[in-house]
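#struct-help
A.M.: can someone run this one for me? Single chain, 396 residues.
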Amino acid sequence: MSAVLPTYARADLEFAEGKGARMTTTDGRTFLDFSSGIAVNALGHSHPHLVAAITEQAQKIWHTSNLFRIPDQERLAERLCDATFAEQVFFTNSGAEAVECSLKAARRYHHVTGNPQRYRVLSFEGAFHGRTLATIAAGNQAKHLDGFGPKVDGFDQVGFGDHEALKGAITDETAAIILEPVQGEGGMRAVPPQCLRGLRELCDAHGILLILDEVQCGVGRTGKLFAHEWAGIQPDIMAIAKALGGGFPIGACLMTKDAGQGLVAGTHGTTYGGNPLGMAVGNAVLDVVLEDGFVSGVADKALRLKQMLAGLQDAHPDLIEDVRGLGLMIGVKCRDTITNAAVVSAARDAGLLTVPAGDNTVRLLPPLIITEEEMSEAIGILNTAFTAVRPSAAAE
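D.P.: on it. Structure tokens below:
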């Protein structure tokens, strides 16, 4: 019996190595990886540039704490600011910590600008913002809140896409609106560009901050460096992680100087966040992702994959209700006759790793370096999986 706390329903697979878009188990089986560690391994497994960066840094210095200047941290922050709306960056170890920093920055902003009563944050049904007490309150999903006592105060939620409810929920206590431009756990639901633009206008009209959670959809995943760029808007604060470290645990909270004015020395901190080892990897990831043509290449691949998936839906119209998402963050929504868990299991049995999501959806999150041949292979396996879970097949 494992001594690991049983908080995960794990598949009985043990992986020994990975290269590119493939992973190999300890007993020699090879899988095509369309999970990417839940959108983490954006450059696949064992990317040579990342391996070289972490190896070189590991031979120098791993950790110093933020009591001292960290040159690569300053460099990564500057590169992120140059590529985005941001003017300041706080580094963390995870997406949840990046969201926590975002929430604290929003509350402190109103505190120091003379409106301490503004502390409440609005979120949307289906959201997932992390597993801390504050972030599960923001997500407001019963399965995450159950058994952990009273929900942390300061969070209100409206239905996904319910514009009138959103307008009605804003009060004199509202500090910010937080949302994922593409909901991952919520079923790969993308917020339409016009809605993101409307949210920006609404925040400006009411003097509240717009926080975007791009932990899963950021760093090239949608065919733009960040998903909100499709709408031509800018947030005040943005939480990122996952792909930023390419597999190494890195998160970051990006913000304008105005939005971050409340976070001064002593108001927030971290021990590991932004240490030399992590920053070496983060800079290596940006070396690749910021190359000319890399992100636009993701958009091209995404278009081709969606065309393939449209063919899969045509082959299984009784099983596939919708193909949705943005870029290489794609959801295959199953009809009520089958479960996404059954499809994920059948695909895994046939050699393809995918991820379940809410709304009976199968998440496809291939590494951004995926090839067309690998995408075609994945579609073939998904065809096998859907055929296997067809109710008539199960009855035979």
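A.M.: thanks! The first strand starts at residue 15 and ends at 19.
D.P.: also worth noting: Residues 68 and 105 are 23 Å apart (CA to CA).
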